[in-house]
Amino acid sequence: MTSIRKNMSADTTPLLRMQGIDKAFPGVQALRQAHLELRAGEVLALLGENGAGKSTLIKVLSGAHQPDAGRIFIDGREVRISSPIVAQARGIAVIYQEFNLVPTLSARENIFLGQETTRAGLVDRRAEYRKAMELFDRLSVRIDPDVPCKRLTVAQQQVVEIARALATSAHIIVMDEPSATLTLQEVRKLFDIIRELRARGMGIIYISHRLDEIFDIADRVTVMRDGECIETCQIGQTSRARLIELMVGRKLENEFPAKSAKIGEERLVVKNLRRGRAVRGVSFSTRAGEVLGITGLVGAGKTELARMLFGADRADGGEILLDGRPVRFAHPREAIRAGVCLLPEDRQTQGLIQGRSVRENFGLPNLNAWSRGGFIQKSREVAALQRYVQDLSIKIADVEQPVRHLSGGNQQKVVLAKWLEAHSRVIIFDEPTRGIDVGAKYEIYLLINRLAEQGKAIVLISSELSEVIGMSDRILVMHEGCISAEFSNVSAVTQEQIMRYAVGEMDTRSA
Amino acid sequence: MRRIQILSDYGMPGVLLLLCLFFSVVTLEEQHPEGEDAANRVAPKIAQQVPQDRPLVIVARPTLRDQAFARTAKALLQERGYRVLAVIHGEPPVIRLRLQALADSAAVPAALVTVPDFRLPLQSIQTRIPPLAQIPVIVPDSYRWPTFLLRDNLINVVNQIVVIAIIAIGMTMVIITAGIDLSVGSLIALSAVIAARLIAGMGGTEASTLALILASFAAILACGGLGMLSGVIITRFSVPPFIATLGWMLVASGLAYIISGGQSIYAIPDRFVWLGRGTAFLGIPNAVVLMALLYAAAYVLMTHTVLGRYIYAVGGNPEAARLSGVRVQRILVFVYTVSGLMAGLGGIVLASQLKSGAPTYGLLYELYVIAAVVVGGTSLSGGEGKIMGTLIGALIIGVIQNGMNLTGVETYTQKVVLGLVILGAVLLDKWRSRG
To answer: Average pLDDT of each block of 10 consecutive residues along chain B (435 residues)?
Structure first.
């Protein structure tokens, strides 16, 4: 410990220095002379829009990509990181958004995967168990090392990843959007762990879109844009507005656009909807032109509720009324016909077919309208798509481009376009801006407001409290499958108030 | 970048073309004309060497091809004003006797006409009949041409893969949905045996055309039914396609043995070979015409219809497809049904080619079919693939087998080469899609 402290005070040689890193992919210059400096005992936030080059830079560091040019120094010595194994040997650990855990293996087995403790050729389970417990103790969490990872929560899996990094005696830990799928409390816990690691003299690179968090945890911040590292500064010497400006390259006036939709007739009424333990009797209603925000912690039942409204999952009981008529959707197909649509939380796996073209994804729910005797009239399909490309300003090179090459914001617009073409009247957004850049977020918000003005009923499900407060006319808070609060006076609501209901400290509605 | 573009656009057709080119060069040799071709080639040659009005004698062995030669040559020569004194058919001793008789009757022709292969035997007969000894023997000129590119051989290439290619249509659809159908090989046997057994029961070699058609349809529908059951088991009970179709593979094979009693069934009328061996259009075998029609239909289905779009969508991402309103389960049941129907049809074609039904048919065919699909560029992970790619994949397999047969590569080596080519094709595809 003392030796580390000495290292810290001898601030001259940084723990990690990357300089002049270039990396090109076919058609894109992903990194241009990118540089980065990480000191021992600090948290460096890496900030930038999607496609700014953060991931590429991290993949160069972790040995997944080889840079075209540039040098990397660890503790002042130049190193070549030719593969992930070399990176691990150099003390670099990267915790990706999608965890690299084997779901069927236990926490202990995952921690020691590839570096098993053996005695006489056999795995020494007891020694590993002890070490795993020690690691969890150090992180002050309680996880049974013998539980299969698939039975752990997302937050616990993350801790297992961190424990694995510690077990490899890493001193440079990179976390790629670690809070994206965590609840507020889990994030607090994660920050405690990060502070603990920092106190031990480790260098932590923290990648996130959430500016609040960066001000909470980071010591310094490096902002990337278009493959370049534009600015690095002390977190105390900058502001939220300044960082956004740096990221998007222009001034952003408001995070949320003003809204002027007229609220009309009652459109969707839900009565006592139930499904297993996920949704336990939810009732609410929403009107044409209204944006109804639904928030809550991960696992509160928001997504399950959305899927039931859309017919993707079957309800155990309850009633849904659409424009006054009772409906029961056995398949999303029926919901789509009735004018209800869902923009799922995970565009990659649920919203779009990544390998297929923009045109095919757009056309999928609408083919019957353009086909005669089962034959698709492609010209009508393309014409319809072109209208939305214009109208929603979707940035694509060609309608035949695979959607996987589009940015998150543009992908979301493609999903939206296909539902608008299907004449949806109730649009359910599930985490519509997750993983989307600040600039593109604003565009999505504008679209949501425009749809409300057209008289559509919008259900906005989000765990980003600022988003729910900024966008909604009314907010429902869910806790453990029930609605624990409803706020109609959105302008007066604070994040803390909502949080108290989300964690179940208070409950106004359920008995 | 550019090179990769060319590869991805023309990869497999290019490989097919290169293979054809290679085997053309390797099999370039003296071709001795036969049959009608020989007659067409010999007529102008005679016109140069023999004045008109002169008597000629056409000599031919007792084979179908030589008879065709003699028939056509006679007609052509008479057209040009020659007198055809006699057309002599038969084994060499017969020919010798007839020529002797001709010489005895003092009717000496100006020339003897025959095919290149029979020139030497004829000349040795001729020397023993003094009046005819000096008469020229005229044969069509031989020419250099790749054996591979002979019309008969090209038809043979397609004929050999026609069963695999037909079944590969269904398999392509199944693999595009990220599934697999291992049962098709056994379904070939089952279909052939059901059809043969029904025909045997409806009069055997005396069965009517209607009976043949009914028996064939019954067999195809039975296989389609089994395919549909595969689809239902896969969708309703979430059984992995590999396992579900593996089960049906064993069931179908066992049923084929039970139905046939383990024996080949030969009690089938000659007319049954119409599909497999007959030619009704430009001399192309009917089965090949059928295959071409099926590919055209499947191509339209996959590229221009709602159903085709749904098949790709289900393969690309079943959950996203479902959330877009696609009835994923129905699509899956559909593709496995088509796969079963195609396997059943393949069984009928094979039974027609071989004029019998046996439970041993189609052994390991599922692997060749899958190979054709994969070589054709369809990804086993689903969502991508082209029907016409599969046809090219099947042709690549056919060309390699045929080419090796022509160049005298032994069977065991052929297997090794075929396996390596399949691996090579898939590696090429991986490399291409990475670039």
So the answer is: 50 84 88 82 81 82 84 84 82 84 78 84 82 81 86 88 95 95 95 93 83 93 95 94 94 94 87 83 87 95 92 92 92 96 96 91 91 88 89 92 88 88 77 60
Cβ-Cβ pairs closer than 8 A, A with B, add up to: 80
B325 and A351: CB-CB below 8 Å? no
| Full-model pTM | 0.78
CB contacts, 8 Å: A418 with chain B:
324
Distance from CA of B5 to the nearest CA of A (A): 12
Min Cα–Cα distance to chain B from A419, Å: 9
Q: Which residues 69-98 of chain A have a CB within 8 Å of chain B?
A: none
CB contact under 8 A, B323 and A332: yes
Distance of CA A55 to the CA centre of its chain: 14
Q: What is the CA radius of gyration of chain B?
A: 27
Q: Is the ipTM of this complex over 0.85?
A: no
Tens-place pLDDT, residues B177-204: 999 999 999 999 999 999 999 998 888 7
Q: Cβ–Cβ of A353/B321 closer than 8 Å?
A: yes
Q: In what order do the strands lie in the sheet with A426-430?
A: A340-343, A426-430, A457-461, A291-296, A474-479, A482-487
**A451 class by beta-carbon count within 10 Å (0-12 exposed, 13-18 middle, 19+ buried):** buried
Q: Enumerate the domain spans of chain B.
A: 35-145, 151-434
Helix axes B365-375 and B387-406, enclosed angle (nearest 10): 120
Name every chain A residue with its beta carbon within 8 A of the beta carbon of B386: none
Contact A350 B323 (CB under 8 A): yes
Work out the burial of residue A155: count CB atoms within 10 Å of its CB; fewer than 13 is exposed, 13-18 middle, 19 or more buried. Answer: buried
**Cα A205 from Cα A165, distance rounded (Å):** 13
Please tell me the distance from the alpha carbon of residue A103 to that of residue A152, in angstroms, as a whole number.
9
The pLDDT tens digits for A228-254 are 898 899 998 988 888 888 887 766 566
Cβ(A305)–Cβ(A335) below 8 Å? no
Fold of B151-434: ABC transporter involved in vitamin B12 uptake, BtuC (1.10.3470)
A331 neighbourhood in chain B, CB within 8 Å = 322, 325, 327
Mutate to test the interface with B, among A331, A343, A364 (most CBs of B within 10 A): A364
- In the block, which residue shows the tokens 């600090």? A42
Q: Which CATH superfamily is domain B35-145 in?
A: Response regulator (3.40.50.2300)
